Amino acid sequence: MSAVVAIIDYGSGNLRSAAKAFERVVAETGLGLTVSVTSDPQVVAKAARIVLPGVGAFADCKSGLDALPGMSETLTDAVLARGVPFFGICVGMQLMASIGREHGVHAGLGWVAGEVVPLGVEDQGLKVPHMGWNQLMADDGGHPLLAGLSPDAHAYFVHSYCFVPANPAHRLAHVEYGGEVTAMIGRDNMVGTQFHPEKSQATGLQVISNFLTWKP
User: Which of 50, 122, 126, 134 has its CA 20 to 30 A from that of 158?
Assistant: First the structure.
């Protein structure tokens, strides 16, 4: 039986595009994995790798996740207790934070200490949401998920809020948009990207491939 990559369906996220991107990488690399879009905690509990996408407001996404019976507990056991590789995308990454400050103050999963705060770049004449392609810049020598990217690698962003980790070492990459904005965070077996790898063409497919072969 093939190992499962579980993409969590909790009512938020560009699931079709994400699933197609992961399926493409699996097919092209011959990794012998099965991509499963699921809202079933039992599937997630047995998964070899877990992906949490997310589009929309922080609180709505957290509520959607909490509304799946047993899912938060299953995620905590798999990711924190058993060290299953985890990939959060966009708001899925933001949910890894301690707190989200979008339309109030909301508790996140608390896996990577930090806050999700407004970009606050309007006074510089920059548009919010930040939407489009930006050059990725690795922090502290890079991370395995950034391996194989060109020095000029660009990724696609759509967001109005950004993750500010409490520990700067947990910021793995950034972009310039009115200052340095977190593009990727992580620690241990967990990573998250503010950009959408499924919309980032060759750069995104390389990041997905790196995740699927990553051995944290």
Answer: 50
